[in-house]
């Protein structure tokens, strides 16, 4: 629902996070390939002061600083991982919109697969139980069936 | 008028308490008079809440700033439309809209439920009464929209500018009609558990209500997405924001419910699961209301400092959801399991659909709540955002989307996968062809995008397969085909249309994400830039004054093949009352694609920062949901879905036009 999102974006975080125009022309790197890498990395980093916005989307000053930092590291020859590590070291894991896999996020990352597997096993068990119980008639039903057959 | 509204709301609470007790006691002791109380009480409740809502709306229309809520969210200079929509553009008003729609659904059950067995109807309305009583109490205790302000100020503080848009007129009402509409399925499920009885007729009653709620929710989400797209000014259409997820989760589980209710209606199978899903779907709606309305999303600490509202809704949530689930645990075994089926069958395919949709719902749920729980439990802060959801949710959707076309082609009980695959061969061929064409003619480096669009083509062609085969396209003369198509059950056509719409949405999303072109440049009036094989000329900037804002309008011309094809007007707007700037995007639609221009800051020498996008096929993202809604409407209009419809036809012979 976007109403409340809009309210958040503007009311609560007012001047900080007006979203339009995140990346400004003076930030863009001359080399389009490096720039593409910078955009890719920025879209996975969270703006610290905003509600659920990447630094690529956010207009906040802090986001701009981070975008420039990302580009500086790229120009300095860092790999994508090194750039991200550098930012995480300074600002904490909170800035990662896609949290790293670890003990603290095992449940988060494992959940989809876990639920899918558990659901499949549950379905399989249910099917076996159903097949076991419904395939056969109970004694009483057997008697009724015989009675019906006799009568007709 | 305001006090009358307030009083009506208090009366409605009293009636809701009657509605939640008398009929259900009546149904337990089999007292027809007590059960008969439900329907008229539901109708009068609705009338009272409507009166309260109108009273508040009237205060907005007449700019009565002696009402705190109006003073906080309105302004005398605001255009009339936004005065009216401002009624629900705030916490108190939107909660009032919430209960209004809840009461509307209760009233609809009371009116259209004539064919329901008395006991079931009484119990369903009583459960609706519990929900209504809880939320009316919530409004009166914590969020009174009718509070007065003395002395009355001369001028209001104006509505948040971003909400001053037609979107606010359409999006929240649609969304709530969907959200709250699921309360009917919930009430039916709880009633079934209380009565310990559930059968195919039950599913037949529940399905149209679920479908109606689903249609509204689909429209609400799509509309909200388009609103954010054009209003927020950076052309995103889905952000995986917790608030969006809050509306998306009921949609996902509601979609699952729609499909499992089908199995229950046709084959009497999956009863217990359908009941559970009906409870879970509305629980997710309630959870969404809690997440959005309690402030818990901004941060756990904000919630802790002013917890009144949050704790109240959490209480309602715990009581209703916990109660329903406890009842389920206690009574579910009393609902006998029904028809058996082979894994490869229509039922089997619908079970697969439910497995994936439920897993997807759970993934979104866990992703949304994980950071909150983690912070509450350990104090550590992590973020779960779009990249996480795109990866996990996306991976879950691929197998589901591959499976969709098979479903309608499999027979009930025992299907033939090989035969279905044979009939889908042309769709597969078509999908591969589409993917190849995209690789060859659009972009050779985008293998993944080409495959995804191939998948979408597979969905669309697969959805058409059922209709094509059943109507005999290719093997029969056109007149026969047309007659057969006309004669096909509407629910079959609805299914095909909705699945086709899903494919359309996938095309839109993939094309926009993968193939959009972006330019961020500094431009002066008169400058021209190239983008996406077209040119964009910056014509001029001129000031403009609206009713409650001033703006700088920048005019651009889109040039394609040396020909002017249209004008885009982007603006930087300043709402004077709140001194708040907004960005108005300039959008030009060409076919299914759009050019999108947003204006940045001026740099003093007459030049502006300009962000321009070419978004190919972007409108398909919202056209798809429109098709899904049309499919739902077609399906809901199927006479076979309506209990007692044949009886009505006998008494009221207007078949030709109605069919």
From TrEMBL, chain A:
Question: Residue limits of the CcmH/CycL/Ccl2/NrfF N-terminal domain?
Answer: 11-149
* Keywords tagged on the record: Heme, Iron, Membrane, Metal-binding, Signal, Transmembrane, Transmembrane helix
Q: Which domain of life, per UniProt? A: Bacteria
Q: Which InterPro entries match?
A: CcmH/CycL/Ccl2/NrfF_N, CcmH/CycL/NrfF/Ccl2_sf
**One Pfam annotation, family name?**
CcmH
The family assignment reads: Belongs to the CcmH/CycL/Ccl2/NrfF family.
Name the chain's protein: Cytochrome c-type biogenesis protein
UniProtKB/TrEMBL annotation, chain B:
Its protein name is Heme lyase CcmF/NrfE family subunit
Cite the GO molecular-function annotations of the record. Answer: heme binding; heme transmembrane transporter activity; lyase activity
The transmembrane segments are 6-25, 37-61, 95-113, 120-141, 174-194, 206-228, 248-265, 272-291, 311-330, 351-373, 393-412, 424-442, 448-473, 494-515, 617-636
Q: Which domain of life is it from?
A: Bacteria
The record's subcellular location field reads: Cell inner membrane
Print the keywords alphabetically. Cell inner membrane, Cell membrane, Cytochrome c-type biogenesis, Lyase, Membrane, Transmembrane, Transmembrane helix
Domain Cytochrome c assembly protein residue range list: 88-294
Q: Which GO terms describe its biological process?
A: cytochrome complex assembly
Q: Which GO terms describe its cellular component?
A: plasma membrane
Entry membrane topology: Multi-pass membrane protein
Q: Main location per UniProt?
A: membrane
Phylogenetic lineage: Bacteria, Pseudomonadati, Pseudomonadota, Alphaproteobacteria, Hyphomicrobiales
Q: Which family does it belong to?
A: Belongs to the CcmF/CycK/Ccl1/NrfE/CcsA family.
Q: Where in the numbering of this chain does the Cytochrome c-type biogenesis protein CcmF C-terminal domain appear?
A: 314-639
Function of the molecule: Required for the biogenesis of c-type cytochromes. Possible subunit of a heme lyase.
Which PANTHER family does this chain map to?
CYTOCHROME C ASSEMBLY PROTEIN-RELATED, CYTOCHROME C-TYPE BIOGENESIS PROTEIN CCMF
Source organism of this protein record: Tianweitania sediminis
Q: Which Pfam families match?
A: CcmF_C, Cytochrom_C_asm
Matching InterPro entries: CcmF_C, Cyt_c_assembly, Cyt_c_biogenesis, Cyt_c_biogenesis_CcmF
């Amino acid at each position: 629902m976007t109403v409340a999102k809009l309210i958040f974006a503007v009311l609560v975080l007012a001047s900080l996070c007006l979203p339009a125009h995140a990346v400004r022309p003076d930030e863009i790197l001359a080399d389009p390939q490096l720039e593409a890498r910078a955009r890719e990395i920025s879209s996975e980093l969270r703006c610290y002061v905003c509600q659920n916005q990447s630094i690529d989307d956010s207009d906040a000053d802090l986001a701009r600083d981070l975008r420039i930092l990302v580009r500086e590291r790229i120009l300095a020859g860092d790999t994508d991982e090194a750039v991200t590590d550098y930012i995480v070291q300074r600002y904490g894991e909170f800035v990662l919109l896609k949290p790293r896999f670890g003990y603290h996020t095992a449940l988060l990352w494992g959940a989809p697969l876990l639920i899918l597997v558990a659901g499949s096993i549950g379905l399989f068990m249910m099917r076996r139980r159903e097949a076991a119980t419904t395939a056969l008639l109970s004694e009483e039903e057997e008697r009724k069936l015989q009675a019906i057959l006799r009568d007709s | 008028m305001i006090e009358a509204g307030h009083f009506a709301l208090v009366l409605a609470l009293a009636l809701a308490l009657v509605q939640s007790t008398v009929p259900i006691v009546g149904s337990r002791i089999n007292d027809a008079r007590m059960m008969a109380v439900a329907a008229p009480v539901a109708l009068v409740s609705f009338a009272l809440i409507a009166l309260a809502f109108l009273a508040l709306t009237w205060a907005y229309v007449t700019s009565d700033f002696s009402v705190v809520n109006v003073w906080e969210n309105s302004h005398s200079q605001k255009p009339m439309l936004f005065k009216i929509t401002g009624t629900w553009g705030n916490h108190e008003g939107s909660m009032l809209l919430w209960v209004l729609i809840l009461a509307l659904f209760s009233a609809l059950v009371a009116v259209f439920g004539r064919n329901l067995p008395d006991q079931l109807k009484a119990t369903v309305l009583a459960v609706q009464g519990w929900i209504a009583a809880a939320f009316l109490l919530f409004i009166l205790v914590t969020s009174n929209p009718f509070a007065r302000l003395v002395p009355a100020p001369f001028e209001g503080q104006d509505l948040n500018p971003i909400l001053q848009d037609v979107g606010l007129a359409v999006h929240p009402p649609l969304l709530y009609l969907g959200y709250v509409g699921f309360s009917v399925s919930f009430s039916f499920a709880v009633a079934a558990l209380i009565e310990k009885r559930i059968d195919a007729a039950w599913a037949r009653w529940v399905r149209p209500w679920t479908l109606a709620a689903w249609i509204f929710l689909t429209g609400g989400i799509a509309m909200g997405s388009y609103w954010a797209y054009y209003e927020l000014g950076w052309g995103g259409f889905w952000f995986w924001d917790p608030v969006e997820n809050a509306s998306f989760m009921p949609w996902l589980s509601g979609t699952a419910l729609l499909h499992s209710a089908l199995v229950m209606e046709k084959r009497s199978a999956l009863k217990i699961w359908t009941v559970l899903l009906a409870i879970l779907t509305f629980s997710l709606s309630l959870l969404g209301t809690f997440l959005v309305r309690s402030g818990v999303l901004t941060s756990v600490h904000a919630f802790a400092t002013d917890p009144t509202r949050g704790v109240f809704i959490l209480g309602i949530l715990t009581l209703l959801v916990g109660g329903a689930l406890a009842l389920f645990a206690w009574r579910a075994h009393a609902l006998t399991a029904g028809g058996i089926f082979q894994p490869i069958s229509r039922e089997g395919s619908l079970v697969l659909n439910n497995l994936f949709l439920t897993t997807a719902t759970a993934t979104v749920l866990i992703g949304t709540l994980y950071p909150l729980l983690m912070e509450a439990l350990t104090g550590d802060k992590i973020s779960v955002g779009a990249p996480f959801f795109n990866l996990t949710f996306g991976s879950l959707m691929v197998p589901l989307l591959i499976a969709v076309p098979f479903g309608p082609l499999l027979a009930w009980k025992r299907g033939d996968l090989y035969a279905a695959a044979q009939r889908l061969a042309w769709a597969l061929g078509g999908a591969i062809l589409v993917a190849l064409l995209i690789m060859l003619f659009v972009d050779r480096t985008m293998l993944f995008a080409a495959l995804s669009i191939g998948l979408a083509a597979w969905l669309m062609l697969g959805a058409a397969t059922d209709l094509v085969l059943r109507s005999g396209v290719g093997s029969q003369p056109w007149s026969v085909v047309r007659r057969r198509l006309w004669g096909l059950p509407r629910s079959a056509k609805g299914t095909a249309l909705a699945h086709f719409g899903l494919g359309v949405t996938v095309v839109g999303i993939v094309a926009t994400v993968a193939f959009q072109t972006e330019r961020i440049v500094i431009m002066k009036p008169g400058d021209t830039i190239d983008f996406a094989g077209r040119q964009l000329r910056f014509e001029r900037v001129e000031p403009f004054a609206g009713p409650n804002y001033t703006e700088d309008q920048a005019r651009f011309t889109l040039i394609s093949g040396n020909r002017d094809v249209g004008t885009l007007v982007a603006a930087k707007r300043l709402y004077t009352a709140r001194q708040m700037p907004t960005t108005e995007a300039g959008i030009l639609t060409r076919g299914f694609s759009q050019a999108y221009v947003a204006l940045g800051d001026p740099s003093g020498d007459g030049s502006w920062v300009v962000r321009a996008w070419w978004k190919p096929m972007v409108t398909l993202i919202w056209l798809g949901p429109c098709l899904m809604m049309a499919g739902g409407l077609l399906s809901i209009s199927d006479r076979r879905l309506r209990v007692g419809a044949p009886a009505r036809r006998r008494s009221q012979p207007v078949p030709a036009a109605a069919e």
